[in-house]
Design brief:
single chain, Peroxisomal Thiolase, Chain A, domain 1, transferase, Beta-ketoacyl-[acyl-carrier-protein] synthase III C-terminal domain-containing protein, acyltransferase activity, transferring groups other than amino-acyl groups, acyltransferase, Thiolase-like
């Protein structure tokens, strides 16, 4: 995995998950100091911060993970798509550039 974007509830938990997955600290997105624990919005906010920083590149592998009280948790992985400018000939609005 290239990036860890987790539920922004606790920096220690994010660090532990990153350690277990072998993801270097500079590849872990932590924005608690900026956004706090915004519950379900924390992953999209953290992902947006990463994308707007210019560090996230097309083809990067990203793990998204969240946890709740008790034993509830969920994770998924994705490959960040190549963005296509709307002004490119033949580009559809909101296209990811993926082939059909």
């Amino acid at each position: 995995m290239d990036w860890l974007v987790g539920h922004q509830a606790n920096a220690r938990i994010l660090a532990l998950v990153g350690d277990v997955l072998g993801i270097e600290p500079e590849r872990r997105v932590v924005c608690l100091e900026r956004t706090g624990n915004t519950a379900t919005a924390s992953i999209p906010l953290a992902l947006s911060q990463l994308a707007s920083s210019g560090r996230l590149r097309a083809g990067d592998r990203v793990v998204l993970t969240s946890f709740g009280g008790g034993l509830s948790w969920g994770s998924t992985t994705l490959i960040w798509p190549r963005a296509v400018a709307v002004s490119e000939p033949g580009a559809e609005r909101f296209s990811t550039g993926a082939s059909a």
